[in-house]
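Example (one chain per record):
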Amino acid sequence: MSLQIALLQIDVAFGDPQANFNHVEVKLQEVAKNVDVIVLPELWTTGYDLTRLDEIADPEAQEAFSFLSKLAKRYQVHIVGGSVAKRGENGVTNTLLVINRKGQLVKEYSKAHLFRLMDEEKYLIEGHERGNFELEGHPSAGVICYDIRFPEWIRTHVIDQTKVLFVVAEWPKPRIDHWRALLISRAIENQCFVIACNRVGSDPNNEFGGHSIVVGPWGEIIVEAAEEETILYAEIDLDQVDEVRQRIPIFSDRRPDIYKL
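Predicted structure:
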């Protein structure tokens, strides 16, 4: 089975949700027809304006969900809706939303690993659940940015035959080589597609590196963006995951008797 993917590598207006909603809606109008999945970057509604989250975080992510649900139904696409600052009863989480073609919420995932270099632990609370969901009947998963530095967390998501790992990010430009190397490694060691959408542009404290990328289960780069705003397209054949896993059966050869997740 093949899926057509579009990644929205966009700039994000710092602390201005309305501007970002407007920008995403305009960009979606540019997406080619017959796309199956659209992917947005991390914290696309607010950027890293963490000190103002009391003012600009989305209560229960309802505004973002309503907005993405409307667009998913309009364009008949699945949306891996990046992540948003979601205000809940206990605080604010950095939460990914996955919405199907019917506009239904199929998954929320809150970032498990908070990134101290950008003060996330001061303003956000960590998530505790996995990011697994089904996409067109195929096991998939979504994680957020810093999560990819924890291979045990990624492996936790793929031991149940997951074929596609979505990564949404605001990955800084100075460490963009790490971004590429980690994503390729996660694809090779888990024999799955990795579809990673990063932002571009800058905020008062950071410059972001772009290089959104789609990596195949052999670790091959299928398509990669540069550092400008763009819509990145890729077609992935999910049957390729089964072929790779049959040729090198790493999941059958694991030794869970001597190591545990």
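Caption: The longest helix spans residues 176-190.
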